[in-house]
Design a protein that fits this description.
The protein is mostly helical. It has helices spanning 3-28, 35-59, 70-102, 110-138, 142-159, 172-180, 204-231, 241-257, 259-269, 276-292, 297-305, 308-316; strands at 193-196, 199-202. The chain has one domain (3-316).
């Protein structure tokens, strides 16, 4: 069994064990999860991700077709991808909080919606990553389109206030479902469907799930060019396609896995993140510019041998 297969097994095992523990803890608490407890669990998730990245540095074998050391490149690309996606995921989480608030979702129903929303996000990102990486592998010019998309996204994020104008009732899925089915007047119902006078009614949390799901699609579309830009930087043949796919998927999943615990912390400390959008937009601009300049040999050569530069920029931001 080769190294990448072993790492896939380890990654899936870690996901099942730690995510299962996190779900159990958040589901069986009788009282509201405190900010301190949430930050503790967030620190656990970050520590697991960093340890996983460190194992790539020390344990991943050298690619015989590359003159660049494989382990350090694997680690720096993983951590860079993780931090980039984590920043984007935090922004995603702020939108979840706004949706819950505007739709009047009862606190006891929020963890259920959050877990489903995050699982939807994981599935969408994996699918989009596999498609995006395959497209770039076959048609290299697509990377320039991704670069332009990232620069445009950075501009929108820096200068627009779209999160402040989130209106769930204007969502196309919300409006469509509301027209097709009657709505249960009990906005605090814990069920997705109820039966009233023999008719199936949609509930408020089902409508919220539709809004969250469509929001996940939009965020996935924005985040996939970013992770591809991080993983694909530098000259070719440093990593194999299977190694690049593994880094893109694992860093993405690690980034969103800890969002359940982080959610409860963010509700209490949202004001501390007023510069988040500015920082994330700078990271996206940096990655987008690298993608547009990827055909310049000196640029590709530099980032192939100095992949730590991207990591330093992301951490510094």
């Amino acid at each position: 069994m080769n190294a990448i297969a072993l790492y896939w097994i380890a990654f899936i095992a870690i996901f099942i064990i730690v995510y299962g523990i996190d779900l159990y803890v958040t589901s069986h608490r009788q009282r509201t999860i405190s900010v301190k407890s949430s930050l503790t669990w967030t620190a656990v998730w970050i520590s697991v991700a960093i340890a996983f990245g460190a194992s790539l540095y020390f344990l991943f074998p050298q690619n015989p077709e590359s003159t660049v050391r494989t382990g350090p490149v694997m680690m720096t690309k993983f951590i860079s991808g993780y931090l980039t996606e984590y920043s984007l995921s935090v922004d995603n989480l702020f939108v979840f909080i706004l949706i819950f608030s505007m739709m009047g979702i009862h606190p006891k129903n929020q963890p259920k919606l959050l877990k489903l929303g995050i699982l939807i996000s994981v599935v969408l990102r994996i699918l989009f990553i596999l498609v995006g990486m395959e497209l770039v592998e076959r048609f290299h010019w697509i990377i320039y389109i991704f670069g332009v998309v990232l620069i445009w996204t950075a501009y929108k994020m820096a200068f627009s206030k779209e999160d402040e104008n989130v209106n769930p009732k204007s969502n196309i899925l919300y409006k469509g479902a509301s027209r097709l089915f009657p709505i249960d007047p009990d906005i605090h119902s814990p069920h997705f469907f109820t039966q009233i006078n023999g008719k199936i009614h949609l509930t408020n949390i089902f409508l919220a799930l539709l809004v969250i799901g469509s929001t996940d699609i939009l965020f996935a579309v924005d985040s996939i060019p970013a992770i591809i830009g991080v993983i694909k930087e530098g000259i070719n043949n440093v990593l194999t396609l299977s190694e690049e796919n593994f880094l893109a998927i694992s860093s993405n999943v690690f980034a969103v896995m800890g969002l359940i615990s982080l959610f409860f912390a963010l509700k209490g400390i949202m004001g501390m993140f007023r510069y988040l959008k500015t920082g994330v937009s700078f990271i996206l601009l940096f990655i987008g510019m690298k993608m547009l300049l990827s055909s310049v040999h000196s640029v590709g050569e530099f980032f192939a041998h100095h992949s730590w530069v991207s990591l330093a920029v992301i951490i510094g931001t």
